[in-house]
Every structure is written in C-alpha cells, then in structure tokens.
C-alpha cells in the first residue's frame, strides 16, 4: 500500500487536474472503443494458454470455464491485496476438475512465468530505445533475476519430480507431490511451443489495443515504444501495491511515456484510460461470476489444501 501511495503522489505531483481532464475529454471514441475490445480479447487467449498447461497434468475444464476462472482471478486481484486472485483461480480450477489445490496452484505459477519471460524479452529488445533511467535499469535487472530464478526452479522441479517416480497421496509429502505435478506441467516441446505462441498472440493483441488507446488521445507510439511500455507495466506489477495496482500502474505507464517525450498530462490520461480499460470490465464481470458460482471471498480464506469441494 505504501508503494501505491508513493506512486500516486509521484504521478500527480505538479500536474494540473484540468489538463488531464481536458486530455481525457478529447479522447476519440472509435480508436478507444476498438482498443478496449482488443485489450479484453487477450483474456480468452490467456485462458486458452492456461488450459494447455493444465491439460498436461489432468483433464481441463471447458474453454468457457477457464475464461471464467481467469476473469474471477483478475477481479479478486483488483479488489483484494496480496495477489489472492491466483489463489482464487486455483481454487476454482480445483473445484472444477477435482484435483488437489496445490497442483492447480502449480499450473498458475507456470502460467505466470510464461508472462514474465515475455515481459523480460520485450524490455530486453526495446530498452535501448528509451533514455536510460535508474528505475528502468532496476526493473530490467529485477525482471531478469525473477525470470532466471523462475525458469531454474521449474527445471529443478521437473528433474526432481521425474526422478522420484512414484507419487505419494497423503500427508505433507502428498501435498508436495501435488505442487510438483502442477509445476512440472510443461512436459513436451510441443506444449512449450504452444504456450509460447499463445503468449505472444495474447500480449500482441493487448499491445495493439494499448497502442489504439494512446492514439485515441493523439499520442503516437512506435511498435518498440508500446512494447517497452508493456514490458515495464508487466514487470512492474510484481511491485507490492494496492489492489488493482492502483498508483503503481499509473506511475509506471505515465513515466514510460514520459521517456518518449509525451507531455505529462497526456501521459497521465493514457495511464488512467489504459488502467480503466481492463480494470473496470474484469472487476464487474469477475465479481458477478464469483457471486454466480456461490463462492464468497471469505470462503477463499477457508480453502483446504486436501479437499477441493466447495464449502
């Protein structure tokens, strides 16, 4: 929460609210609407990628159910701190396919590592296009470190899991085996290639949507600049922050555009619109789905590691 408050102060410091309001009011409706549609279109692709990962360890729910779980996870992340959305979608998957919660959580970790690898690749390919700043270097090196650790951990898990052979079903060892099964869900080169292609497609669609949101405000970004901004926002989401990344997201988006000479009021307006483009729809739809499924936020806190049945 402290990081969000500090970021909110930084992004609003010295900016005239009237100028930001004018920029928002001048946004062109057509490119903004298309941009929002494309940003939201990335979610079915991300759900399809997670389904590919899940199918390596157990039968996966339908495409529609996987999309529901992704949206529920996004909504919970938007309203609760601590990235509890990842627990929420793991819990939902556990209830749907009757698999151990920790196994489902392992697939979520693999799913998130796929995003992390792409964000680092985007920054690595485009960081030279932006003027050097200390905060950029911290994000780049932090992202590289997280990626190396994440990939190394998954490789170690795969080696350990396959050498152990027989799987325990009970006790602490059983829970560990369930988690290892989920983490060891990239089991073939074909699966790895599919996950990589769908990741690029999902975030490619998202970046086109973000580019259109910028165009709606009269901000013209090159392909490398929008890729850089996406990498910054993706890796910056790892910073502990308020629910929905409020504050940190806006500061990162506005600061990234500021590196390319975009006026601060316009950059803040872009940050507000881009955040709202995914925050509002995923929160509304995700919370509605959560209520429809009869799962309360309190129930998520009572999740059993052994029993995936609903409370």
Task: Please characterize this protein's 3D structure.
The chain has one domain. It contains 13 helices and no strands. The protein is 76% helix and 0% strand. α1 packs across α11, α3 runs antiparallel to α9 and α9 packs across α10. The protein is mainly alpha-helical.
List the helices and strands and how they pair.
Blueprint: H1 2-12, H2 17-25, H3 29-54, H4 63-79, H5 84-97, H6 101-126, H7 134-164, H8 171-183, H9 189-216, H10 223-236, H11 248-259, H12 264-292, H13 297-301
Search tags:
single chain; 311 residues; mainly alpha; 13 helices; 76% helix; disordered C terminus
Short synopsis of the structure:
The protein is an all-alpha fold and 311 residues long. It has 13 helices and no strands.
Mind describing the biggest β-sheet? none
Number of strands: 0
Helix content: over 70%
Approximate strand percentage: under 5%
